[in-house]
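Ticket opened by: R.M.
Priority: normal
Category: complex prediction / small molecule

The reporter submitted a protein together with cytidine-5'-monophosphate and asked that the result be attached to this ticket for the collaborator who will pick it up next week. Submitted input follows.
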Amino acid sequence: MKNKIIVALDVDSEAKALALTEALQDYVGAFKVGLQLYNSVGPNIVKKIAAAGGKVFLDLKFHDIPNTTARAAEAVVGLGAFMFNVHAAGGRKMMQATAQAVKEKAAALGVPAPLIIAVTVLTSLSETELHDELGVQAPLPEQVARLARLTKAAGLDGVVASAREIPWIRQACGNDFLIVTPGIRPAWAAGNDQVRIVTPQEALTQGADYLVVGRPLTAAPEPREAAKRLLAELQA
Ligand code: C5P
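Result attached by the on-call engineer:
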């Protein structure tokens, strides 16, 4: 169960990130390094978290031409992340080139290939924005399912998705496909700016493989105690 919990390290300094890594790692499986931390302190934070014993999900959401994305992904293999992500909207060729480059780079370095996850439709986008601003006429569930199928066909390992999207994705892609779910709030935590939140137990019941949890742990008065409580509740 511990391995299913990924902590979002949305902080702006190496000291804060490493202190949280140290405090939480007995109770969680991995740490998510996103754009804030990465751009604040640089790529070496991935190696430092790994050196401190933590696995890293590098959440930089690559979206570029196939060659550029593939070369960036090779660099991620060198950093030692266990998971990273791209936008499925980059298309099949981009995802295939990325998967191929990762496989070859991991073999050359003699390290395990990181899992590659795609973002389908950002959960911050409403169906109205999808239609009126982006010109996508398909209903939201259909668009999410379409991009999830494309992700699977391109050979990637899974997608990031809100809990409410899980049934659409399982129907489109089956059970042999990872779903990483943010927007998680234990009953005892504040909602913050998340709108559609689910409890960790609900997300697992829906079929999430990994739960991304940030502020309920990182902003708790006692992060370690909060992580211990979350894990105990999931195991119960
Ligand atoms: O603090 P909180 O638990 O809300 O953090 C959730 C993390 O998951 C943040 O890093 C956020 O950017 C990320 N995320 C999200 N919703 C998405 C995709 C990513 O909350 N649809």
